[in-house]
């Protein structure tokens, strides 16, 4: 795991540095790109750390001359490498439980020749399925993701390159399934924790989806030229903030409770996974 974490940091840092150089220092090379925006580039070296960290381009793209739709770097980086490896990582930990893999005193991995499902925790299976479904839902409802802050507003710098490939893909795996696979005694007797955690996850996943769809429908209605005076949320006329930049912030429905209410669903899902992965003396998932 240490090698994977280190590799993630190296790749993320290299990616952010290349973005800073190509789309920041050499910004003039991209002025004819359709997605080029006036705030792209590096214009003040005193802000180099901020520019490298947050990014210097919003949606940098490649291969304009050979692709009908240019390759969107941020969209690909957010959706493909990290999320795919996240699923693979969970499956690998479940395989390790199945074959009873562990480290010897010499620090070498050892696994049984035959598998045994009695060693596989129901909590690990639930968490692995929940993570898979989260990613499946993400791709199934891809148009909704294209209206999120990550894609529409955030610049593409180290914060996102590391967040997607250095943090999310590895830490979400070993905080839950990885923790369970490392236990000396298989976690197969925490039935109450498993049931409570699963119910919390289901409720949180529903909350996550309905909040995001509510915002997506609002933004799609605007993009299609709809009349907001006729638009309703929960049966009431929609309330929103029209910013100086021209964007619209929904303040009705779920979004009347908090600016980023969809994160409540994310946080509550993590709570359900942590409860499912714990038992007497098991505190690591909470960390």
Commentary on this structure:
The protein is mainly α and 287 residues long. It has ten helices and eight strands. Helix 5 (122-140) runs antiparallel to helix 8 and helix 5 (122-140) packs parallel to helix 9 (191-223). It starts with a helix and ends in an 11-residue tail after the last helix.
Largest sheet: 2 strands, antiparallel
**Helical content band:** 40-55%
Q: Please give the number of β-strands.
A: 8
Uncertain residue segments: none
The portion of residues forming beta strands comes to 5-15%
Assembly type: single chain
Overall structural class, as computed from helix and strand content, comes to mainly alpha
Sheet with most strands: strand arrangement: 1-2
Report the mean per-residue pLDDT as an integer: 89
- CA radius of gyration: 22 Å
What gross morphology would you assign?
A: globular
Number of helices: 10
Q: Topology as H/E string? A: HHEEHHEEHHHHHEEEEH
Q: Terminal Cα separation, in Å?
A: 17 Å
Describe how the helices and strands are arranged.
Elements: H1 2-25, H2 48-54, E1 61-62, E2 71-72, H3 73-79, H4 81-98, E3 102-103, E4 109-110, H5 122-140, H6 142-145, H7 149-152, H8 158-182, H9 191-223, E5 232-233, E6 236-237, E7 240-242, E8 248-250, H10 262-276
Antiparallel strand pairs: 1-2, 3-4, 5-6, 7-8
